[in-house]
Amino acid sequence: MFRTAACSPQTEAEADRALIGASPLFKQILDVVDSVAANDCIVLLEGESGTGKELIARRIHTRSRRNAGPFIPVNCPGIGESLFESQFYGHVKGAFTGANTDTLGVVRASEGGTLLLDEVGELPLHLQPKLLRLLQEREVTPVGATRPVQVNTRFIASTNRNLAKSVSDGEFRSDLYHRLNIVRIEVPPLRARKQDIEPLLDYYLEAFASIYSMAVRQLGPRLRRMLVEYPWPGNVRELCAYVERLYAAKAPPLPPSFAVWDDGYSPRPSAIEPAPGRMPAIDHSPVACSLAEAEQRTILHALEAAGYNRSAAARILNIHRGTLLRKMRLYGMDNH
């Protein structure tokens, strides 16, 4: 099993296993997904980055009558503006310099299957009429060809934007929006379905234990409560990365921090020099983190300085050994 099978499933079976959720909201979403899968209509998936829109698109494909055909995601912002027609529609040999063979393009490559137009909201305004014509006519004319070719492909579009607002702002064509908005499914952020956080944690804890050939990491009750209350700005993708970090870096299970979302340009408070003490010097750069995380980092630093002798670490911290042991149990650091 590779890492992609956990955070970015590549097969329909892996995608289905990763769509975890027991909350009423998520179950309702999956009910709509399964209902629309049987039809061939265009589906528009809107939601924040990291919410699992591609997994849902794969589920639609898996449960459709096209499931024996290919599922091809195409990153719309990654399509070169000058090569849009060639990359989407394909080209014939000799159509331009370097066109040494015929190519299908992503639309014809997904014949009989499903094409996911990922981040369709980022498609430049002047290219949107080309996509609109494709969706309306269901035909493409390869570059260098003289006749159009009919295509038999289902289209799903996904975006982290509110396309209706993009239309109002003049950034997205209204006719293309209405063509895409046959069935619109809003994928909720993880903070809106807190009941699903612990099942997702358990899924990824087991998945990465298998990937890294390690024992399943255990998270204490208090830490689990903190993880449920954390808003997860990066959604399921952030949660997946958090769990992998526990294995990849063999890191102690600390609460996630908003420091990862700091763009590095916001003003920061000046560093406070610690009073002289027994602790070896630490990097005093100010770090945005919770009080609990700062305490855990301090404990870990003391343990490292004491060669993981807990009595010596307690003396460094100037606290009783029992207090140190209690805090270590609280933060799930018993294995240190």
List keywords for this structure.
336 residues, Rossmann fold, Arc Repressor Mutant, subunit A, five-stranded parallel β-sheet, 15 helices, elongated
Question: How would you describe the overall organization of this protein?
Answer:
Mean pLDDT is 83; it is low at 265-288. Strand 4 and strand 5 (149-150) form a beta hairpin. Among the domains are: 24-190, 3-Layer(aba) Sandwich (Rossmann fold), CATH 3.40.50; 280-336, Arc Repressor Mutant, subunit A, CATH 1.10.10. It is an alpha/beta fold and 336 residues long. It starts with a helix and ends in a 6-residue tail after the last helix. The chain is built from 15 helices and seven strands. The strands form two sheets. It has a five-stranded parallel β-sheet. Helix 2 packs across helix 4 (53-62).
Helix content: 40-55%
Overall morphology: elongated
CATH topology call of the domain at 24-190: Rossmann fold
Q: How much is the radius of gyration in Å? A: 25 Å
What's the order of the H and E elements? HHHEHEHHEHEEEHHEHHHHHH
Overall CATH architecture of the domain at 24-190: 3-Layer(aba) Sandwich
Distance between the termini: 29 Å
Given helix and strand content, the structural type is alpha/beta
Q: Compute the average pLDDT.
A: 83
Strand content: 5-15%
- How many distinct helices? 15
Number of strands: 7
Task: Assign the CATH class of the domain at 24-190.
Answer: Alpha Beta
Q: Unreliable runs, pLDDT <50, ≥5 residues?
A: 265-288
- Please summarize the sheet with the most strands: 5 strands, parallel
Strand order of the largest sheet: 2-3-6-1-7
CATH homologous superfamily caption of the domain at 24-190 = P-loop containing nucleotide triphosphate hydrolases
